[in-house]
Amino acid sequence: MVTLWAAKKDSTLYGAYEHMIAAAWLHDVLEDTKLTDGDVHAAVGKHVTDLVVELTNASTGSKEPRAVRKAKDREKLARASREAKIIKMFDRIDNLMDLAPDDSFGIKYAEESILLADAIGGADGGVKAELVAACKRVLRRHEGL
After folding, report:
1. Is position 31 annotated as part of the catalytic site?
2. Which position among 10, 18, 32, 94 bears the catalytic label?
3. Per the CB 3.0–4.6 Å rule, which of 51, 67, 101, 128 could disulfide with 121?
4. How far is residue 9 CA from its own chain's centroid?
5. Which residues contact 114 (CB under 8 A, 6 or more apart)?
6. Is residue 130 among the annotated active site residues?
7. How confident is the model at residue 40 (pLDDT cuts 50, 70, 90)?
8. CB atoms within 10 A of CB 41
């Protein structure tokens, strides 16, 4: 999704978005593997690593209630770079599209995603609109459950 977004922005400047595209691929690596930011830096350099760190949930490893963790994650993302915010919104859109139609977690996830869109959507109004639309589709799908 980030690659398509970058190509629509300006295909002649496609290379200007290479750090975002790499970070989009790697955005969960610090949460889901034993790799460190040092490992990522050694493999892909500072700019991509900085984005991956920005995209890593502040609440990773926390045992606090979900609402508290997600609020912390939104607060961190609200201070993130424009690039990281756009990647995060596309990540959420992708995750919302992957939810099974009968997945009751989808309601909570869509509601959390709307709060996230409010917190970081200023980075790109078009991507925010896509995220909110994806949330609404999930919520409508679950109205009958």
Report:
1. yes
2. 32
3. 128
4. 19
5. 132, 135
6. no
7. very high
8. 16
Quickly name the fold that domain 2-142 has: Hypothetical protein af1432 (1.10.3210)
- 3-class SS letters over the chain: CHHHHHHHHCHHHHHHHHHHHHHHHHCCHHHHCCCCHHHHHHHHCHHHHHHHHHHCCCCCCCCCCHHHHHHHHHHHHHCCCHHHHHHHHHHHHHHHHHCCCCCCHHHHHHHHHHHHHHHHHHHCHHHHHHHHHHHHHHHHHHCCC
> Catalytic residue among 28, 31, 64, 75, which?
31
Read off the pLDDT of residues 69-114 as tens digits, 9 standing for 90 and up: 999 999 999 999 999 999 999 999 999 999 988 888 999 999 999 9
| This prediction's pTM | 0.92
**Sign (positive/negative) of CA torsion 101, 135, 24, 71?**
negative
